[in-house]
Amino acid sequence: MPILAARAAEGDAQPGVRSRVKDLCVWHTYDRIIVNSAAGLPVPARFSILQLGKVLFSPNSVFSAVAAESPPASRVFFRFALWLGLLPPVFAYIGTMQFGWRLGVEPVFLPQATVIAICAAYFVALLFGFLSGAVVARWMAVTYDASQSLGRCLALMAIVGAPLAVGSVVHLFPHAFFNVLVLVPVLIWCMYLLYRGLPVVLGTGPNRGMLMASALIAYLFVAFVSLLGITVALWGSGIGPLIGA
To answer: For the whole model, what pTM was predicted?
Structure first.
């Protein structure tokens, strides 16, 4: 790439060289795509929900692919994260309407309008956590000498959160104890993926990556507890569904 930069500088003085420099840049990008494909890595520019199986069963290759070529932030959000975030609310809606939430012995059924409102709030909370996590990771990158690419940060959060989104299929049987029993191990797996993938995707050292991942997990837990506190405060003030009413 320094050679290309030098030739680009020459192109400013010699207009006839500009087309040649453009061709070299195109071939450089093409070569990177061929190398990724030959290594069995998905092309990050095509990052979409259709690659969910690859993300779940071969996350290391996806980490390497994202590190090799940053995907556009808009593509990660609209073609992967947005659809992934729809899974938990949809599963929760179906399970609540069919079986009711079991917080004790008897199932608790809610009106359809109330369930839709709760699921919509659930979806918004998930998107907020995803976007804020990516933004905070980008902000922390300066301190930990990591990549500040928003596309990489979004891709990292999407890959790390994918098992939790798919694991939310347990919402189809909305028993509180059963959901906790399944989702806690999945959450631990997501944390492991964050520690494993952050140094690779954001291009920082293992030690700094571990510290940055720990700081990011701390932020996410604080945000989650704060959200619970806000929910309890609003519910106690009469803003929220009336269970058993």
So the answer is: 0.78
